[in-house]
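Submission checklist for the structure archive. All mandatory fields must be present; incomplete records are returned to the submitter.

[x] Identifier: NADH dehydrogenase [ubiquinone] 1 alpha subcomplex subunit 1
[x] Organism: Lentinula boryana
[x] Residue count: 85
[x] Sequence attached
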Amino acid sequence: MPVPWEALIPFGLVTVMFGISGTLLNVSTKAQNLGKPVRHNIDNWDEMMMRRDEQLTGHRRGQRDDPVPPPGFETSSVWQTEKTA
């Protein structure tokens, strides 16, 4: 049975477009996460740590290794401990 050569061009185009779209999705996702893999099954603790990391570094996936917080970190919490009149 002969091969329908004219059908290989659309098949190749569809295959290439699936490959390109998958690659662009992967690159876009990694760029949004600072090159780290995507997080799955995020619980309350992870959310809290991600908020803290965002306050420390400016990005939800950023982390710091020095124990000194940036200026203004002590007043950037949403929790209020005292009432201000």
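[x] Structure attached
Curator remark: The chain has a mean pLDDT of 83. The CA atoms of residues 53 and 59 lie 7 Å apart.
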